[in-house]
Design a protein that fits this description.
By secondary structure, this protein is mainly alpha-helical. The chain is 63% helix and 3% strand. It has helices at 2-26, 51-56, 68-112; strands at residues 61-62, 65-66. Strands 1-2 form a two-stranded antiparallel sheet. A hairpin with a 2-residue loop joins strand 1 (61-62) and strand 2 (65-66). The longest helix has 45 residues, at 68-112. The protein is rod-shaped, with a radius of gyration of 37 Å.
Length: 121
Amino acid sequence: MVMFLFLVVALAVVVAAVTLAVVGGGASGPLPEAAPERLQDPLPPDRPVDREDVESLRFPVAPRGYRMADVDDALGRLGAELAERDARIADLESALAGARAAAAHVRMEKTDHPDHPEDRR
């Protein structure tokens, strides 16, 4: 019988606590929505990204990991800059190969024409 009374009192305390929490919490209204955490130091928009920018890049933690939009923006920016640099490197390598071919052609012409006035010196 003592155990039964203890359970009834415990149940009454739990019901009273839940009721007070629901009724008491309703007076101030619901909590305002928290602003989502945003990327604090995004990649610089006014200059190319360098190694230090990538190493210092930290994404804010979201409920399920990282904010996908922040990660997608950063990866898109890095991908575009890498593609631009790859294209620039290919252009420079092509120009260098053309310059080397032209220099080799000039050397071959000089050896083929020993009567050239510059070769008489």
